[in-house]
Amino acid sequence: YKCFLAVFLGIGIRPDLCSKGYGSRVIRLAVQESRHLYGAKAVYLDVWEWNHRAVNVMLRQDSESGKSWSRKRMPEAAFFRMSYDFNE
Predict the structure, then answer these.
(1) Is 69 helix (H, G, I), strand (E, B) or coil?
(2) At CB < 8 A and 24+ separation, what contacts does 28-31 make?
(3) Distance between CA atoms of residues 83 and 46, nearest Å
(4) pLDDT (tens digit, 9 = 90+) per residue, 15-52?
(5) CA 25, 68, 70, 33 torsion: positive or negative?
(6) Which of 11, 17, 34, 77 is deepest in the core (most CB within 10 A)?
């Protein structure tokens, strides 16, 4: 028996604040809050495949945290499902 909790949150950074590290901080805080509030075992983020900055923010965090985001292209839409598993 599995229990699943879904919380949907839209994340965006104003264009004039891009490339200043805010995206990395927002993603890191969102992951920490998800773990703290919901005891999440994994976090999933859907990112439009054309949004290279957003995908790179998550992939860049791999080297910072020692854990990694995985990326899977969703065939029914033009986005990647990025997942971060706390147990890996």
Answers:
(1) strand
(2) 28/61, 31/84
(3) 9
(4) 899 889 898 888 888 888 888 887 767 788 888 888 88
(5) negative
(6) 34
